[in-house]
Amino acid sequence: MPRKLGRASAHRRADLRAMVTYLLESGRIQTTVTRAKEVAPIAEKMVTLGKKNTLASRRRALAYITKEDVVKKLFDEVAPKYADRNGGYTRIMRIGPRRGDAAEMAILELVDDK
Fold first, then answer.
1. Rounded CA gap, 72 and 85, in Å?
2. Series of mean pLDDT values for 10-residue runs along the chain (114 residues)
3. What's the pLDDT score for residue 108?
4. Spatial separation of the C-alpha atoms in residues 56 and 62, rounded to whole Å
5. Which of 14, 86, 83 is nearest to 50 (CA)?
6. Spatial distance between the Cα atoms of 63 and 52, rounded to a whole number of angstroms
7. Structural domains in the chain?
8. pLDDT (0 to 100) of residue 43
9. I need a labelling partner for 35 at 20 to 30 A (CA). Which of 21, 22, 85, 110 fits?
10. Cα angle: 82, vertex 86, 87; to 5 degrees
């Protein structure tokens, strides 16, 4: 069962879309562990779409990712980097509790493929 993250379903979907977009744009985001665990599989699916590089996969990515230039970056730079890697494109690193509410924080980043 998916995590609700204390949001209504439309708000939750918008949050996840924004986080996936920002992750693909910058390469890493800092968020709570729970949110990172929700975003990681979606980001993995977007990279997999980028590896297919068909018109249909580009349109599916454009339907989810909120910025067109991020989709272009996904298909031109990010996905080719993982051409010979079968999954595991993201990494979650825990960084301890957040000051204020002590929520467990993490860095979600795209793995550097060598």
1. 20
2. 87 96 96 96 95 95 96 94 92 95 96 76
3. 97
4. 10
5. 83
6. 16
7. 9-110 (3.90.1030.10)
8. 96
9. 85
10. 85
SS (H, E, C) the chain: CCCCCCCCHHHHHHHHHHHHHHHHHHCEEEEEHHHHHHHHHHHHHHHHHHHHCCHHHHHHHHHHCCCHHHHHHHHHHHHHHCCCCCCCCEEEEEEEECCCCCCEEEEEEECCCC
With CA atoms as reference, report the closest residue to 81 among 27, 41, 28, 30: 27
Tell me the residue type at 66: T
Backbone angles phi, psi at 105, to 5 degrees: -100, 155
Token representation of residue 107: 């860095």
